[in-house]
Amino acid sequence: MADTLLTNVTSEVASELPIKNIDVNLIVYIISIIVIAYVLTWLLSFILIHVSERIGWYRTSITMTIPLLKLLVYIVALYYIIIAVIEPSLTQMIAFSGLFGAAIGFGLKDLFADIVGGVVIIFEKPYQIGDKVTIDDKYGEVKDIGIRSTRIQTPADELVSIPNFTLFSRPVTSGNAGDLAMMIVIDLFIHPSSDAEKAMKILKEALVTSKYVIISKKYPYTVLLEDFPFYKRVRAKGYVNDLRLEFEFKSEVTRRAWGEFQKEGILPPSFVPPSGTLRGEPPQTST
Amino acid sequence: MGHEGKPVCENCIIGYERELQEICGAIERSGSDAPSHVAIIAEQMAGRKTLVAEIRRIYGDRVHYLPLDFVIRESDLPDFSTLASDIILIDNCQFLATRVIGGFDVLDIFLRTQITSKKIFITAWNTYSWQYLSSVMHIDVYFPTIITLTRMDTPVLKQVILSRYKPGEIRFIEDGAAERSMFFSLIHKKVRLPLTTAEIPLPWIKLNFTLMLRKLPRKKRLQISIEDVIFEKINRIAQGNPGVATLLWNSSLDKNTISLRFITETPYSISLDTNESFILSVILSMESLHEKDLAAIAGSEMDIKQVLYRLVQQGLVQNNAGYYSIPPFALGPVIDYLKKTRRLW
């Protein structure tokens, strides 16, 4: 019923618009605009990503502008297509675009929900290109925020496309919120009889001497101890200076700390702690 | 080119008068119950040695001077309580700690000795080492007086350098005849673009200082002389580091004559991986480190010989009998690069 009503209203408004004759030239023109818009967005992404890679500290500041620029290009392209077809007045254009959008929305509501999700991501910035995020149980680095979907690269080097609409229905976690540094939690489990104080000192020094760490008032670090029935957990929290190196950072600190633990006679626990203690990751009882 | 001008004032402290007064004030204020320990912080060649020498000159026998030239062990630390002097002046304190597991123990012992001592400790540190240790160990809380030698402004630098000469002894020449036809000269810099291996000449606009000077209104021309333009250029290249600026001045001076053309800038194109950046930042913050200390910091997973070879090849590091340091003219570019890549915090 609503569909029929909307179709009738759309037809009435459309009949009052000065629609041009659709010929081959017009179709070629529209295709050209779409191709130019696509090439331009690709070129913008390519250039800005390469510039951001060379700029170091401000990498994410550059990449965060990419989705916005893409949106601008597509809006301008759409504007040129509309005026090429109907040459409307401003009032007509507003009325028509509202009805046109609603009409298409009924048929392609999922696609439009993704586009709206894309616009929300651009302006609200729950995550940005370059962030480490978890969306719908998928973890990885945001490589691209498109009009329809967000592409993330997982640690296993898979490129996962997630519809932008997911933002409205699923929790989204950003590990760094636009910053290049990201907090990393490193857990080491030791035998209950081992010298926990010495283990804490070693883990602290392994963390602060790492080649990947960044420490300042903005990026503090801490080392904590927790006692469990069959083991002790020594936990270090510190920031990696570039989130792309999170796994190298974890590995380097763990390896060096365990090397020193062995020299000091600090033993791993006989009981392997359950993996749930490490946010779904396997326990790092030894390396 | 050589430098033949005779220094007039060898022990001048131009540019650091305020800092010296603060240090003297801290010494005079210090009672034996609660000595106000001092930390002097400066980049390599930025005047730390000059200030330390001046303190020694002023306080003479009251000072026990302990310069550290290499990473020290616990046994290298003297028993400060047995020393007769009431001022302990320690230079290159960055050698009290190294970036390895267990590398902070000597510093920890030193700081604990210092806070229980009745003597006043004046310690001099490399800026980047200090920043690292402040972040990691909060060493700043142990020093009520912290003196930071900041980058020098051009007028002060000019005063520092010219104080070594008699008035009129140095001739400043306006030259650059080839560049006078335009305000800006179009030159071609060779750059390496992303995704390409070959260098391409890129058009580049170069400011023509000489002509700009001549075209300025009469009032301003009186204020900006060729002398000032020359010192401006020296200070820009040296990035406010008086030691580097003095070296550049000496190498640009030809028979007590200097012109803009004589002052040349060494170009650096720095491209380093994580290991190389890390080792370079360690060398910068320690100023000079022996290969065996670098190997300990690098650990087993890094091929330190390969890393050092790459750094030496790029002219970013020099080897002096096994000790690696950063050449003076590479200091500015290295600091810029390491800041950009978040190696210096």
What does this structure look like?
The complex is a heterodimer of chains A (287) and B (345). Chain A is α+β, with helices and mostly antiparallel strands. Chain A has 3 domains: 2-124, Orthogonal Bundle (Helix Hairpins), CATH 1.10.287; 132-174, SH3 type barrels (Roll), CATH 2.30.30; 182-278, Alpha-Beta Plaits (2-Layer Sandwich). Helices cover 49% and strands 18% of the residues of chain A. Chain A is built from 9 helices and 9 strands. Chain A has helices at residues 2-16, 24-55, 59-63, 65-85, 90-107, 109-124, 166-169, 196-208, 246-263, and strands at 132-135, 138-145, 149-153, 159-163, 172-174, 182-190, 213-214, 222-227, 232-240. In chain A, the strands form 2 sheets. A 5-stranded antiparallel beta sheet of chain A has the order 4-3-2-1-5. In chain A, strands 6, 7, 8 and 9 form a 4-stranded antiparallel beta sheet that branches. In chain A, a hairpin with a 4-residue loop joins strand 8 and strand 9 (232-240). In chain A, helix 2 runs antiparallel to helix 4. Chain A starts with a helix and ends in a 24-residue tail after the last helix. By secondary structure, chain B is of the alpha/beta class. Chain B folds into 3 domains: 17-148, Rossmann fold (3-Layer(aba) Sandwich), CATH 3.40.50; 154-262, no CATH class; 274-340, Orthogonal Bundle (Arc Repressor Mutant, subunit A), CATH 1.10.10. Chain B contains 13 helices and 12 strands. Chain B has a 5-stranded parallel beta sheet. In chain B, a hairpin with a 2-residue loop joins strand 11 (318-320) and strand 12 (323-325). The radius of gyration of chain B is 23 Å and the shape is flat. Chain B starts with 16 loop residues before the first helix and ends in a 5-residue tail after the last helix. Residues 1-11 and 177-182 of chain B have low confidence and may be disordered. The A-B interface holds A 50, 53-57, 180-181, 202, 205-206, 208-209, 211-212, 214-217, 219, 241-242, 245, 248, 252, 255-257, 260 and B 99-104, 132, 135-136, 194-195, 274-275, 278, 297, 299, 301, 339-343, 345.
